[in-house]
Amino acid sequence: MVEITRSFAFDLRGIAMTAHFAEDKPHGMVCFQELCETLGLNVDYQRRKIRKDIYYADRLFHCLKDVRCNGKSQKQKKLFMDIRVLPLWLLYTNANRVREEYRDTVVSMQEEFADFLWAIHRTSTLPPEILEKYPGI
Question: What's the confidence (pLDDT) of residue 7?
């Protein structure tokens, strides 16, 4: 099983998170359980939702993580998510279910992500004559 080799804390617009790295994983990861608990989301529901989605299914995986239990450090198997899909997962998370203290932050990120995606795909979605006639679209 993959083992976490290094970690560092980071702040995602006021949401305290930790990025984890492992030798055989080329990208950072976030502990899915910790992420859901921080946001006040039901871990089991979110895990089932992701496991059903063909895009996300292989972006959740188990790793061994050092945890403190009764004053001793021990390794526990935890579920992790590839950090690169964090923005997309947040985009599709129901903000009404997010802990109130983070709700506005999540909604703000969702709006930015949606605007960003639209900016990338609008020229391939709309015909050029519409884009010329309505440049603000």
Answer: 92
| Structure confidence at residue 89 (pLDDT) | 92
pLDDT one-digit tens code per residue, 12-27: 999 999 999 988 888 8
Half-sphere exposure of residue 31: CA atoms within 13 angstroms, side-chain side:
22
User: Contact, 50 vs 60, CB < 8 A?
Assistant: yes
The residue with tokens 């950072």 is 28
Q: What angle do CA 68, 87, 60 make, to 5 degrees?
A: 50
Distance CA 124, CA 23 (A): 39
Long-range contacts of 93-100 (CB under 8 A, 24+ apart): 93/39, 93/41, 93/46, 97/40, 97/41, 97/42, 98/39, 98/40, 98/41, 99/38, 99/39, 99/40
pLDDT in tens, 77-100: 889 999 999 988 999 899 999 999
